[in-house]
Amino acid sequence: MFKFSSIYLLAALSAFIVTPAQAKPQTFVASYGDDANPCGRVLPCRQFTKAMSVTDTNGEVVVLDSADYEPITITKSISITVPPGIYAGIAVPSDDISGVTINANGANVVLRGLTITGNSQSEGSELSLSAGILMTAGSKLSIENCVISNFSSPDSSNIQPAVLVQTTATVRMVNTVIRNNEVGALFLDGSTADISGSKFMGNSLYGIVSNNKINGTTTTASVSDTVVTGSGTIGIAAIVESGTSAIAKVEIVRSIISNYNEGVRAESQNGTASVSIRKSMVTGSSAYGLVQNGASSTMTSYGKNTLVNNSSNLLGILTTAAPL
Description:
The protein is mainly β. The protein has one domain: Pectate Lyase C-like. It has 2 helices and 34 strands. The longest helix is centred in the first third of the chain and has 13 residues, at 2-14. The protein is elongated, with a radius of gyration of 23 Å. It starts with a helix and ends with a strand. 45% of the residues are buried.
């Protein structure tokens, strides 16, 4: 009898023992939230960092109402979702901070519906270590229905992109607006990007760049059904700065590139830089619509392209190929 009662007593006491909060597959943030809360739908947290800390790997943080949120560093596979009709803004206070930093080996990250705004200053000439979205480690990144704007550095020696990928990750960008930055999207170090249905507007130096200098790697940017327009240097570019076996590729289809000094550029003196373009328009270039620069670069048209209202349509060699 005593043994039986002891078991029930132990069970009753266990019910009152406080245990650490368990990770959840879905957590929530809101303007009225508190980071002391458990980050549930009824008692949401206030900031992404707290919510992420109690979210399962491969889980989701959901925004419940319109508000401003702090910059975040993502250290595991996770999704951040802003439902339609809700504004979730991340305002970056200085040029040495990124809006979203992804630094997690092997992580798969999804960003939906965020508005990320920089502290726009003067233009620079060298790469900054911060961006609207900065990815330095990870496997996959999906950017969906986001707006990223006003990223430029107050230091005249630095360039601050809206999106900067510095690792061999696969990036997917869909239905996203990138506007009024120095560089719209910069892909480095063997990364692979697929950009579709997006708008790059008013980015003052470059719109989209596939750049590489690491031997034995390929950086690729595929651009489809996208508008790249501005008044800056180059709309879309594939550039190999150094590395005899480094490769940079750009593939453009059903897109419009307008009002840059140069519309599309392939440049390499060492490795291989290639651009292929089909069913697209390049217009309003103040210098050249298409530029092929360097013995190791190629510019290839697969047909049904329109070059119009450019100061000059071509600098270098344009290779034509039958449509695939």
